[in-house]
Amino acid sequence: MVRSCLCPVNRGAMIEDKQNEWKLLCERASTEEDFEKLLELTNEILRLTEPKRKQHPQPPPDDNDG
After folding, report:
1. Structure confidence by residue, pLDDT tens digits, 5-34
2. Torsion sign across C-alpha atoms 40, 45, 47, 50
3. What is the rounded average pLDDT for all residues in the chain?
4. Residues with Cβ < 8 Å from 60, sequence gap 6 or more?
């Protein structure tokens, strides 16, 4: 079990690691040709970015785009 630390230095490092991880996953996904692997990468990206997306939800798209 990994224990989390409330120390700001460690927390900042954890956040930076997650940012780097999802960026690397995005780079891999951008060149992945295998659909199943692309789906796995996409799911992992969504998992890593979910906390941030919950903090800053996007407004629904405007239906008058056309």
Report:
1. 343 445 555 566 777 888 899 999 999 999
2. negative
3. 76
4. none
pLDDT exceeds cutoff 90 at 1 = no
What are the residue ranges spanned by the domains of the chain?
9-53
**Token representation of residue 13:** 């490092």
Q: Is the pTM of this model over 0.85?
A: no
**What is the length of the chain?**
66
| Token representation of residue 64 | 């008058």
From the centroid of its chain, how far is CA 11?
Answer: 17
Cα gap 64→54, rounded to integer Å: 26
Relative orientation angle of helices 35-55 and 8-31, to the nearest 10 degrees: 140
Q: Token pair for residue 60?
A: 């629904």
